[in-house]
Amino acid sequence: MIDTFAANLEARLHPGVPEALKHREMSEWNLISDGRRLVGKRLEDRVVAVHKLTGLRVVLSGAILRRIEMSFPRLVPLCPERQCRNEADMSFRWDNLFAILATLGPNMRDRHFTFTRIDLALTLDLNPRQVLPLHRNARHRLIRRETECYYNDRPGVARKGKVPYRMDTLNSVVFNGSYMRISLYDKVSEVCKYLTEVPDFPTGLRVEIQIKQARRIAALFGKRPGTSVSITDLSLAKCYGVYRDILGRFETPRGRRPAKLDLAACLAILERHPESWQNLSGMRPLDAYRLFNKVGDEQFRRMRRDVSAVEFGLEGFLWSDVLPANRLPAMVDIGTAGTPLATL
Fold first, then answer.
1. Could you tell me whether strands 42-51 and 57-61 are parallel, antiparallel, or unpaired per DSSP bridges?
2. Residue 103's pLDDT band (boundaries 50, 70, 90)?
3. Residues 268, 307: contact at Cβ < 8 Å?
4. Whole-prediction pTM
């Protein structure tokens, strides 16, 4: 459920730990940097080290542990692709984290962690080729920016300028806000990005929600103003509740059919049939509407929202149906070869 997290803290280290890291005397840690940083009007030591087995990144200042960053699934190094399915899975990973931190300092369980980034993610047993095109025109109530990234190539590949894409091979859609980023992508394609062949499986939709800034994280987790999220707040049930609430805020229609056959409904139907785009000089129907009618940005955004609502209605897709309120949804674990793993 938790994918990546970062947290600030202030924990005293065991005597001699900073020197042992600097002299590379702790075999389970790699020293990344050892320098000084200006804090206020004084220079402070700043040591960055990474745990070799799990990738846990720690930042030390003098004899104090200041920050940790890591991928939560890697706390189970032998099978990080296995998702948490109960509270025991979550507890096992937290126990592993504290066991690692215990090599640096005492009483780590008693420290207060101020989480500045939390990524919530699930790999759902849904067909990405059906769900991804549905979100090209979608709008999310917590993200002001229009959807800006559509990928046909491997997710994560560096690219410049607007990326061309085709709806029938779409493998990633990104909603990029200032403090929240929602990514939907084909997990099989992502796992196989360095392979010459990608297995063809109609499952493995990965949905990740990245939340930044401590007060915004606290607000989404229902904490009072001025308080922050603690590790005890990050149970599987609570994380899933926040995850479900955020995805439920995609703007979707009430009914399952268009209320009337207006321009938005016609554009939505055309958007779902790329074979008809050649009659519009190869342009998407929404782009043709914007160009030929010379509409402004605000009018185009309204039309795009209306088209998205019709598309969701035509597909009969609602996140509240996909994500049940009282249990986890159907999930699938994708192995390193891009093949679904058997559920334990």
1. antiparallel
2. very high
3. yes
4. 0.87
